[in-house]
Design brief:
The complex is a heterodimer of chains A (about 375) and B (about 650).
Chain A (H helix, E strand, L loop, with lengths): L11 H21 L8 H21 L2 H25 L1 E3 L2 E6 L5 E2 L1 H19 L7 H19 L4 H18 L3 H21 L5 H11 L8 H15 L10 H4 L11 H34 L3 H25 L17 H19 L5
Antiparallel strand pairs in A: 1-2, 2-3
Chain B lengths: L1 H10 L7 H28 L1 H12 E6 L6 E2 L5 E13 L7 H12 L3 H10 L9 E4 L4 H9 L7 E10 L7 H4 L2 E3 L2 H5 L11 E3 L2 H5 L1 H4 L4 E7 L5 E8 L7 E2 L4 H11 L4 E7 L4 E8 L4 H5 L4 H9 L8 H4 L9 H10 L8 E3 L2 E4 L2 E4 L5 E3 L1 H7 L2 H11 L1 H10 L21 H8 L5 H7 L10 H12 L3 E2 L12 H10 L6 E2 L4 H14 L17 E7 L4 H7 L8 E8 L6 E7 L5 H22 L34
Parallel strand pairs in B: 2-10
Antiparallel strand pairs in B: 1-8, 2-3, 3-4, 3-5, 6-7, 8-9, 11-12, 11-21, 13-16, 14-15, 17-18, 19-20, 20-21
Helix pairs in contact in B: 11-25, 15-17, 15-18, 15-23, 16-23, 17-20
Classes of the chains: A mainly alpha (about 375), B alpha+beta (about 650).
Chain lengths: ~375, ~650
């Protein structure tokens, strides 16, 4: 029985893919911010990576089982932080999402909570010991995810709140939910969503506008409909091969909204075309496939749960973000993992990858 | 070891997640990515053409480049009307998110009333969205700075460099030059303005209007690359603007300046013309207005001031004032009398008037025995009453019409008035009444129904003094126009044009010598006599009310007679004719003194030019049938008050 983990078992392939993606991200951020006041964002993104990568190595050497033990505590702290951010957080664009730590560093608890949720859910389903899920079990899982989700929703941050949902879905799916239960849940959620839609009170006016403009993009050409329209023009006019780096008229002319974060994929597709876009999708495919493999090879059930939680979150964000950019999804403000600019997003991704590495390195521990 | 104990605890139960579920996830990943790829395919492969067009439309904007308007020069090439660079502010409606909320800020920054912006928007409500709306012209540097500073909040505001009109200050030559203004929506709908677009500047009166098509040039355009704020970041291509044609006017700035001076503070008009060619040397109308106020930001205040002025500053009285010519008409009467062979041997005893058809017509003096040689210098009404009675209205009308009375002269200015030359047919047509012979008598001295413009009188008297050669008056040398343009212009501004009337040499000499004696010692304009200059002419003191009405009303301002003078130099084949109308100027001699100053300036300038070689064309007394009549006993020290 080997008791020590080894960096020989570190997933260097996955790391290579992730770093390749990060390099593409930095280059596209550079291109998208070239003529704007954000022209140093590529450097800042590099700096975030320089923090994220060591953190990934650091977390990979702490046994994830210890992290699982700490999960309930972390969960409690998370709830406190989410309440705190509502109370003392910095208000940006009408939402309180950030806690100012001083020194120009802003901490976004909701990204951190995502990681905690993945661990908490994994631990919860391990605790159920593989028995068939009762409605009580399911209700507990829902409560576990929906309490922080609700707290994020009232910040308000619909996008991040939505990213908690795949953690729950992954847990329930792997935890053995039965098809009949799924059907009942979907029906219940549909009724709930329908009720919310009709009352319309749960959504902020700009969120309503986003949904409206998704259905009819011409309704508000300078609002969120404008964003979708410009995004479609950017992607579409890129064509097969794209217009070339720094040559996207939509990106460089400031027609494409926030081309370095939420719409970075549109900027990339405009400048590098269908071929470049497919390349990105291929990279995501390889990364996700590698993650699922790691989940399969995990030495125990919580390991698998954690990795699949990460997979669920990343896949969900890809679907929602790229779906939005190509006009298949409404505008929700969810960043594209490994591509969009943003420190919190990078830290989450690399911490999550660190835990994945951690699990992989301990697959032969028994 | 805690590490181990942890792992062992979690591994205590040997449970695994079923491989099938993980495989299902793998399939889900493939499916999801395939759907996204399909979405990209739809846009980038199937929709590429469509989206490329939209992307180009996003970033390329066609900006008009205004052609600089042609300048107006005087006959010697001196600049009369120039252009200056200015910045205008336009509103791009496509850039607007919510215009209503922006209006107060725009109003504050551009110093415009919010209602005015709203009114402008309404005015352009029907025009296509992509057309920009001119908000304010000739904005100040601080307004420009405001627009620059609010690029992000007010992306709909755009500035454009333009050339603006710079007119001489103080309303100098304002009526002949005219003014420009923004083309009105109403104009845009008429076919005449097919080539015009909103915001275009067009000539609205004077030469600016007549020759607008030459002056305006052809606008160019630029394809500019813009960002989402409408800010220009580059340029793709351009069509250069073709500047408008500079026009050389027949105006002589030196003469115009003197004419402006002599008319200052008066109400009326002055026209100076070269009768050989019809070239107008000076044209003044008073009161005047400042065309610069019309070229940019015409204030409501200035406009109402102009419009409500009872003396009509916008009216070009040189071609639009239609008034009784008074005794200046006697030149035409003399022409008719002599050409008809009636006046040569007429001798009239003037005893302060005469009775015709049971009605007494007064003359202002007892001129005694008057013949054709003394009647004009004396301006004896009795003589001309008698002559009118002998000729009859239709003969008088025939001669008057032949020298352009009651007919437009065809000057190249908009809105010329035709005046009225009464006749039997005219009365029947306008009043459906028969002409009474008694009415003829007053017309003989230029009173009654007759109405003329200063332009008409200048042309008529100048033409007669030239031996019967009448010219079409004009302000622009015709050699600057193509034949087509000339034809088009003349059909737009019809008139009697160039023409020749029959006039025998003898009669010509009699009339011109008569006019020379008007400024001579016995004449009504003796005070205006110019020593050393062959200066001739005819005074006119036209009643604005009948004598009885005058007596009844008391002596108000409006009852003061209009003072006319038509002067020429030299008396035969004159180089200049000057018509002066001074409304309420009291007597013709007053106007004669004004005309004399202009003629003096003209002759002095000419002599300077010609190195003093031009000698005074002294009257050739041997050509006269009789010697000059001796001054009558009654010759007053003062010129007569009512000629």
């Amino acid at each position: 029985m080997r008791r020590f983990s080894s960096f020989r078992d570190f997933d260097w392939t996955l790391l290579t893919l992730v770093l390749l993606m990060s390099v593409i991200s930095v280059l596209e951020i550079k291109s998208a911010t070239l003529h704007t006041k954000f022209h140093n964002f590529d450097h800042k993104q590099l700096a975030f990576l320089m923090v994220g990568i060591p953190l990934m190595f650091l977390i990979s050497v702490i046994d994830y089982h210890r992290l699982l033990d700490l999960a309930p505590w972390a969960y409690g702290v998370s709830l406190i932080l989410l309440v705190a951010v509502k109370a003392v957080g910095t208000k940006v664009l009408g939402a309180r999402r950030w806690i100012n730590l001083g020194g120009g560093i802003h901490f976004q608890p909701s990204e951190w909570v995502k990681l905690v949720l993945i661990l908490t859910v994994a631990r919860y389903f391990w605790g159920l010991a593989g028995r068939e899920l009762s409605w009580i079990d399911i209700a507990k899982a829902f409560a576990m995810v929906c309490v922080p989700m609700g707290l994020v929703l009232i910040q308000p941050d619909l996008g991040t709140a939505l990213t908690y949902f795949p953690v729950l879905v992954a847990g329930l799916f792997l935890g053995g939910i039965r098809p009949k239960q799924v059907a009942v849940l979907i029906l219940g959620l549909a009724v709930l969503a329908g009720g919310a839609w009709l009352s319309g009170k749960r959504l902020k006016p700009y969120q309503q506008a986003r949904l409206t403009s998704f259905i009819n993009p011409d309704a508000d050409p300078k609002g969120s409909g404008y964003q979708i329209k410009q995004s479609l023009i950017a992607v579409g006019s890129g064509g097969l091969w794209g217009k070339g780096t720094n040559k996207g008229t939509q990106t460089q002319g400031d027609f494409l909204p926030i081309p370095y974060t939420d719409f970075i994929f549109a900027a990339f597709c405009e400048e590098h075309g269908f071929v470049g876009g497919i390349g990105i999708l291929l990279l995501y495919f390889l990364i996700l496939t590698r993650l699922i493999q790691n989940a399969q090879q995990a030495s125990d059930m919580p390991g698998t749960f954690i990795i699949m939680g990460v997979v669920a979150v990343i896949l969900f964000q890809i679907v929602v973000n790229i779906g939005m950019v190509v006009g298949l999804m409404p505008v929700t403000g969810i960043p594209l993992p490994l591509m969009s600019y943003g420190g919190s997003s990078i830290l989450f991704t690399f911490l999550a990858l660190g835990i994945v590495m951690n699990i992989r390195m301990r697959r032969f521990v028994n | 070891m805690p590490l181990t104990s942890n792992a062992e605890r979690y591994n205590a139960r040997d449970e695994k997640v079923s491989a099938g579920k993980l495989h299902a996830t793998q399939y889900l990943v493939v499916l999801v990515l395939a759907v996204l790829a399909a979405g990209m395919w739809r846009l980038q492969i199937l929709g590429v053409e469509n989206y490329r067009v939209l992307a180009e439309a996003n970033r390329i904007r066609k900006d008009p480049v205004r052609a600089p308007r042609g300048r107006l020069l005087d006959r010697e090439g001196r600049i009369l009307v120039d252009n200056y660079p200015s910045v205008s502010c336009y509103l791009l409606r496509e850039q607007v998110k919510d215009l209503q909320t922006d209006i107060p800020l725009i109003a504050r920054g551009l110093h415009l009333p919010a209602e005015q912006i709203a009114a402008t928007l309404r005015r352009y409500g029907s025009s296509p969205k992509y057309e920009s709306i001119p908000l304010k012209q000739d904005i100040t540097p601080d307004e420009q700075a405001f627009i620059e500073a609010h690029r992000n909040e007010l992306p709909e505001l755009e500035t454009r460099d333009e050339q603006r009109r710079l007119y001489p200050p103080g309303g100098f030559a304002a009526h002949l030059v005219g003014y420009v203004g923004e083309v009105s929506e109403q104009d845009l709908n008429s076919s005449k303005f097919d080539f015009y677009e909103p915001g275009d500047v067009v000539g609205k009166s004077g030469v600016e209007q007549t020759y607008d098509s030459l002056l305006r040039g052809t606008d160019g355009s630029r394809d500019v690359i813009v960002n989402s704020h409408g800010k220009e970041v580059g340029q793709l291509g351009q069509v250069l603007a073709k500047p408008g044609q500079d026009l050389r006017l027949t105006i002589d700035l030196d003469i115009q300046r003197v004419a402006e001076q002599v008319m200052e503070g008066k109400i009326g008009a002055l026209v100076a013309m070269d009768p050989h060619t019809g070239e107008i040397l000076a044209m003044v109308s008073r009161p005047t207005f400042d065309p610069n106020q019309f070229a940019v930001r015409l204030t409501r205040n200035y406009w109402s001031q102009i419009i409500n002025d009872p003396d009509h500053p916008l009216m070009n009285k040189a071609i639009q004032a239609q008034l009784a010519p008074g005794s200046t008409f006697k030149v035409i009467m003399t022409l008719a009398g002599l050409q008809e062979g009636v006046a040569q041997d007429m001798h009239v005893a003037c005893n302060g008037g005469a009775t015709f058809y049971g009605h007494f017509f007064a003359c202002d003096k007892h001129h005694g025995s008057v013949d054709i040689f003394s009647a004009l210098p004396y301006s004896c009404d009795t003589f001309y009453y008698t002559l009118a009675n002998r000729l009859g209205i239709d003969t008088m009308a025939r001669y008057a019409s032949s020298v352009g009375i009651g007919v437009k002269s065809g000057v190249d200015l908009p809105e010329e008035a035709a005046g009225i030359m009464p006749s039997e047919a005219w009365k029947m047509k306008t009043q459906h009444e028969k002409w009474y012979a008694g009415e003829t008598i007053s017309v003989g001295i230029g009173q009654g129904a007759i109405e003329v413009t200063p332009m008409q009188m200048a042309r008529a008297v100048g033409g007669i003094a030239s031996g019967g050669f009448l010219r079409r008056p004009h302000l622009v040398f015709p050699d600057q126009l193509t034949n087509d343009q000339l034809t088009a212009m003349r059909s737009t501004y019809p008139g009697s044009g160039d023409k020749t009337i029959p006039l025998t040499v003898e009669n010509w000499q009699i009339i011109t010598d008569d006019m020379a004696n008007v400024t001579g010692p016995i004449g009504t304009a003796a005070e205006a006599h110019l020593e050393g200059i062959d200066f001739a002419g005819k005074t006119g003191t036209a009643q604005v009310m009948s004598h009885t009405a005058l007596a009844a009303s008391g002596k108000g301002h409006n009852t003061v007679p209009n003072a006319w003078f038509i002067g020429i130099a030299p008396r035969r084949n004159p180089d200049i004719v000057v018509a002066v109308l001074w409304e309420h100027g009291n007597w013709g001699n007053n106007s004669a003194k004004l005309a004399a100053q202009v003629i003096n300036a003209f002759v002095t300038k000419q002599r300077k030019h010609d190195g003093n070689i031009r000698v005074v064309d002294t009257p050739r007394l041997d050509l006269l049938k009789t010697s000059l009549p001796k001054p009558a006993q009654t010759t007053p020290a003062q010129p007569p008050a009512g000629e």
